[in-house]
Design a protein that fits this description.
This protein has about 280 residues and is mostly helical. It has helices at about 5-30, 45-65, 80-90, 90-120, 125-145, 145-155, 155-175, 180-205, 215-245, 245-275.
Length: about 280
Amino acid sequence: MTRPEERARSIGLLGAAINLGFSIGPAVGGLLASPEAGLIGFRLPILISAGVAALASLWSGFVLVESHAPGVARPLPKWSAAVGFVGSHPLVLRLFLIAFIGIGAFASMEAVFGLWTQHNFGWSTGQVGTSFIFVGLTGFAVQMLLIGRATRRFGEARVIVAGLTVLAASMIFQPILRDPVAAVVLMSTLMAGHSIAFPSAGALISRSTAPDIQGSVSGLLMASNALGRILMPPAFGAIYAGLGPDWSYYLCAGLIGVAIVFALQVVALRKANARL
């Protein structure tokens, strides 16, 4: 529903709204949780989250305008066509891999952060939740003020490289500095890198996809991202438990390094396409 040249900014605005919720939700959850009561002490924030999600679902049903014009419904998209398109398109395939790795890695660092700060600083759930206010507000500010200007000046591909580089640096310096203030700052810069890179990746995928399969490709991207969020946090939780708390940061930074290689290839492909 947006013009191609405005998609990175529009996705950034959507991400800013998500980050605003991200800054409020963990803080509320951390304040409502009662770890001293055991597992039952975490039921209240879970139930309140379920209630908020139910309200959002009702709001969506009654308020959002249908994007399809009235008339005969179009046939359901063929997912095989979306999979075939992504697999045969070198640029889009690399963007999918970048999103899968980066979003899964960011979710892993979210999961590890509370454990890591409790281990190193003795933080409570309330302290971890409160720290996410600053993390979320950083993402909100980046996506409101920076991403549109950055993509217009440098292009989505270079912005993705920059965001991934910030992600990797934030992960590497977390166990090196090992300081409570630095922990919040570096988690905030982690969010900044995430907020720069992945709206740009989504916008570039959208711009590189034909209108007739854009919906199915976008759905496939969301499914791929969700799979990364499902698989990678338990894997890095196992690394945290098996190799030690710091190794999850170092190995995750190495994984982002692989994504940076793909991103540099995206820059080269964009240059090659521009010359055609």
